[in-house]
């Protein structure tokens, strides 16, 4: 038998193809999803390109070319490198720490142009901003801790790789490796040149005026506000972050203490605008 008449063995070819798309591009190969490998089609000699049932291959992370489509999958987008990599391959992809700014959240994707949406803008405190090597803190000059986190370096804020005008943030208010001494989140001044906040205003409390007072909720960090708990007079306090009430009246439940605990046989009393137990006291949950 002449060599030209010998049947071709596709095994070596298929084994060298390591992605679904590369594998299925060869009509004599088949992608095994359960093993994530390319194998010869069992009847490759009788299979033509038209006869092979098309397989829907998913994109691998490296095939995504923007933050928006990369963060929709199980991938990591490296902003400064402009690359999308698999979460399990992050260390091998950037062995020397080349990726300085990354995200897996679509809302943190940066846009291009004058209205740049930087990941830095999601940091609300100088301490968290300083921990990101691509960001710096611009103090607002009030000496109360208020400021803005923006992309930049030791010399000042930047837009992509270009320096911004000094008017964007005066040099004396730019902090890249340190933070202003006074950090009261805009709700108090500090005593002298210390970091001790004077009595907190605006319904806040804490060493940096970073919490809401009892009976109020919100996020007072960096000028945020606190609002009263809305509990229909059935609770004295609520969760400081979510506003969910800690109902104190028996038989009343709900985020705002607005309904009766029907699961434990409490029902509405329209006359007294309260809840009553349907059965004897022994039947209700105490």
From TrEMBL:
Disulfide bonds join 200-209, 212-226. Keywords: Disulfide bond, Glycoprotein, Kelch repeat, Laminin EGF-like domain, Membrane, Repeat, Signal. GO terms for cellular component: Golgi apparatus; membrane. Residues 182-228 form the Laminin EGF-like domain. It is found in: Membrane. Gene3D superfamilies: Laminin. GO terms for biological process: animal organ development; system development. Pfam families: EGF_laminin, EGF_LMN_ATRN, PSI. This is Laminin EGF-like domain-containing protein. It comes from Callosobruchus maculatus (Southern cowpea weevil).
């Amino acid at each position: 038998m002449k060599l030209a008449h010998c049947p071709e063995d596709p095994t070596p070819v298929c084994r060298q193809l390591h992605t679904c798309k590369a594998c299925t591009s060869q009509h004599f190969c088949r992608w095994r999803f359960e093993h994530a490998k390319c194998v010869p089609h069992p009847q490759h000699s009788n299979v033509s390109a038209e006869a092979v049932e098309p397989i829907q291959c998913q994109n691998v992370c490296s095939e995504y070319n923007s933050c928006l489509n990369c963060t929709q999958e199980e991938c990591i987008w490296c902003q400064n490198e402009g690359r999308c990599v698999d979460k399990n391959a992050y260390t091998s992809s950037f062995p020397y720490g080349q990726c300085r700014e990354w995200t897996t959240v679509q809302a943190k994707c940066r846009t291009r142009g004058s209205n740049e949406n930087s990941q830095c803008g999601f940091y609300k405190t100088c301490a968290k901003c300083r921990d990101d090597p691509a960001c710096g803190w611009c103090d607002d000059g009030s000496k109360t801790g208020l400021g803005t986190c923006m992309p930049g370096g030791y010399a000042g804020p930047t837009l992509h790789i270009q320096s911004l005008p000094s008017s964007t943030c005066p040099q004396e208010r730019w902090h890249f490796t340190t933070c202003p001494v006074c950090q009261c989140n805009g709700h108090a001044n500090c005593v002298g040149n210390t970091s001790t906040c004077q009595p907190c205003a605006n319904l806040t409390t804490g060493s940096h005026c970073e919490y809401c007072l009892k009976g109020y909720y919100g996020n007072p960090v960096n000028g945020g506000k606190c609002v009263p708990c809305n509990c229909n007079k059935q609770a004295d306090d609520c969760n400081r972050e979510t506003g969910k009430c800690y109902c104190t009246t028996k038989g009343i439940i709900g985020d705002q203490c607005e309904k009766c605990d029907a699961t434990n046989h409490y029902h509405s009393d329209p006359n007294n605008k309260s809840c009553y137990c349907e059965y004897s006291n022994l039947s209700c949950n105490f």
